[in-house]
Amino acid sequence: MDRAAGADQANAVRELIMRQFSFEGPRLYSEQGRHFLELMTGLNAGLSDFLVRRGNRNVEACTRLMQSRSLPEIFLLQAQWLRDAADDYNKETARLSDAYTKLLGSSGGQKGADYFAGARRSDHPFATVASFWETMRGRS
Fold it and tell me: Is pLDDT larger for residue 8 or for residue 55?
């Protein structure tokens, strides 16, 4: 029985050494990192565009407000500004919500997670390594 366990350990160590030269895991995480950065760049660019656009519209509204001559015109401009601002912020909130959903959905990513966390499956490349560590834990 000890010979069988020793053979399993030797095979697991050999498999572990061979996996050191596999670049599949780092490649998958690098791909996920690149995708994450692309999403973050798009998110930041969209947010800065929104802030510039909203700031320009606020300046225009203030300029028209300062040029108004009657109280009803001031109330009309304020109501129009409030409606436009609420619409803009609602649209931006929906866009940010979609962007964060994509961002959070891609950050967990199944490729890298399956590659490393799937070691418990018998058909996974790291299954022998996982069984080696389980064997070692059982001995102590």
Answer: 55
